Automatic annotation (TrEMBL):
Disulfide bonds join 42-69, 134-177, 163-190. The keyword Disulfide bond applies. Residues 9-71, 132-191 form the Sushi domain. This is Sushi domain-containing protein. InterPro entries: SEZ6_CSMD_C4BPB_Regulators (IPR051277), Sushi/SCR/CCP_sf (IPR035976), Sushi_SCR_CCP_dom (IPR000436). PROSITE patterns: SUSHI (PS50923). It holds the Pfam family Sushi. Keywords: Disulfide bond, Repeat, Signal, Sushi. It comes from the Eukaryota. Coiled coil: none annotated.
Length: 191
């Protein structure tokens, strides 16, 4: 085992920047002698716009690389049903945007409430909006409800109550499923 001392004119390892890094051809090199040419490539999250990325060691200095890298722009996220995106700091690499669901009809967010722009594009974390439902309407003794479906009532759907003959309805005749998954009133009573 022996150590090779750097010679006059040799260069230090090229330093990575925010926009580019040392290419794979030079990653394992320990020395960069006079005249060596290495390649640089765009850093993660940056796209090559122009240039080869070559740089040459000359008199202990690296030539200015002709590589131009631009930060990746994910653009507008792909629309999803009933989902809204809140973009406040752009759509470029590492940008984070908020996600919410349309008011009322679809309001329960499953997954993450934010998305992030990465080198591969938007990471949507399986976010989706889900229909808000209420529990089955309560049964009323000596009365009936208009709800006959096996499914749960959805946001905005109304259940109507009636009393059997000889009984009086006390409370609201109609109750509606609200955006928070609760009815706007308790079922009435028939007395």
């Amino acid at each position: 085992f022996f150590c090779i001392s750097p010679q006059i004119g040799d260069c230090e390892r090229p330093q990575a920047t925010e926009t580019f890094v040392l290419g794979t051809d030079a990653l394992l090199l320990n020395q960069f002698p006079e005249g060596i040419q290495v390649s640089l490539q765009c850093a993660n999250g940056y796209d090559r716009i122009s240039g080869s990325g070559s740089t040459v060691c000359s008199n202990g200095q690296w030539s200015k690389p002709d590589l131009f890298c631009k930060k990746k722009d994910c653009g507008q996220p792909k629309a999803k049903p009933n989902m809204k995106f809140h973009i406040s700091k752009g759509t470029q690499f590492r940008a984070i945007i908020g996600v919410s669901c349309d008011e009322g009809l679809i309001t329960t967010l499953r997954g993450s409430s934010y998305q992030q722009c990465l080198a591969t594009g938007w990471i949507l974390a399986n976010s989706r909006c889900q229909i808000v439902t209420c529990d089955r309407p309560g049964h009323v003794t000596n009365g009936n409800s208009s709800w006959t479906s096996e499914e749960l009532p959805k946001y905005g759907e109304t259940v109507q109550y009636t009393c059997n003959e000889g009984f009086t309805l006390v409370g609201k005749e109609n109750i509606t499923c609200t955006k928070n998954g609760k009815f706007n009133s308790q079922p009435p009573k028939c007395q």
